[in-house]
Amino acid sequence: MNRMRSRIIKVSIAVLALAILAKAADSVEYLAQEKVAMDVLYLPSVECMKMMSLGYKNLTSDLLWFKAVQYYGGYVLAQNGIRLFSHLVELITELDPNFIGAYKLSALVITEDLDQYHEGIRLLEKGVDNNPNDFWLTYELGFIHYLGGRNYEEAQRWFEVAASLPEADERAARFAAAAAAKGGNFEDGIALWKDLADNSENQYIRDLAQRYIDRLKMNVENGEGAGKSTNGS
């Protein structure tokens, strides 16, 4: 009898939690349609959402992510603006710090659609802090520095970190070498390309690396570039 009562209580709590979450999600959808001009501060706070989730944080995060995708779809279709997106993502990633897809896709939306490069970087750094062994998050952080900010020193640093992770593939090492060269750091560029030339199992990559090495050495001989090394070599 006690076991059955406990099960009924748990089911009741779950139903109540889902009802609360559905109500919260409806409020987000209402805001997304911009039926009223409300500031982002009127959305639930992180602490409020944690309390409302009643322990079902991942479920809450998934539901809010579904609404965030709907919200972005409405923006693409010119049905609503997108000013609430960053706050939604903050809620989602606080509730579920290991939601890799939310970090990756949201960082692109924030940097490209909202034109908030530094906010996109901050989100990815948060993702990497919470998931330090995830190759793709670290790689994307380097990529946004590389393309979005033209910050080649930071791009090189994060590409090198990505290249050192267990699931890394050679593209991270190649972008690290390319970022070093783009930033005028030819010594690091040569060292990074040489590592690929010596160790890659792909003949095309080894040949490509050697061509870049020859080109960078010529640049050094011509006195171009910063000529500095960030890895102590």
Helix/strand-derived class?
mainly alpha
Low-pLDDT parts are 7-15, 31-41, 227-233
CATH classification class of the domain at 2-131: Mainly Alpha
CATH domain topology of the domain at 2-131 = Serine Threonine Protein Phosphatase 5, Tetratricopeptide repeat
What is the helix/strand order?
Answer: HHHHHHHHHHH
- Helical percentage: over 70%
Number of helices: 11
| CATH A-level architecture of the domain at 2-131 | Alpha Horseshoe
Overall form: elongated
**Hey, roughly how much beta strand do the residues contain?**
under 5%
Strand tally, please?
A: 0
How far is the N terminus from the C terminus? 71 Å
Largest sheet: none
Radius of gyration: 23 Å
Question: How confident is the prediction overall: mean pLDDT?
Answer: 80
Describe the structure.
With 233 residues, the chain is an all-alpha fold. The protein has a domain at 2-131: Serine Threonine Protein Phosphatase 5, Tetratricopeptide repeat (Alpha Horseshoe), CATH 1.25.40. 73% of the residues lie in helices and 0% in strands. The chain has 11 helices and no strands. The protein is elongated. 32% of the residues are buried. Mean pLDDT is 80; it is low at 7-15, 31-41 and 227-233.
Name its key features:
233 residues; mainly alpha
Entry summary:
With 233 residues, the protein is mainly α. It has helices spanning 2-32, 46-52, 57-76, 85-95, 100-113, 117-130, 135-148, 152-163, 170-182, 186-199, 203-221.
Annotate the secondary structure layout:
Layout: H1 2-32, H2 46-52, H3 57-76, H4 85-95, H5 100-113, H6 117-130, H7 135-148, H8 152-163, H9 170-182, H10 186-199, H11 203-221
Helix pairs in contact: 1-3, 3-4, 4-5, 5-6, 5-7, 6-7, 7-8, 7-9, 8-9, 9-10, 10-11
